[in-house]
Amino acid sequence: MILLSTAEKEVAYTDKDFEAHLVALSCSDLPEGFARWFLRLLADRVVKLDYIDSISHETIRQVLNV
Question: Where are the domains of the chain?
Answer without folding.
Answer: 2-64
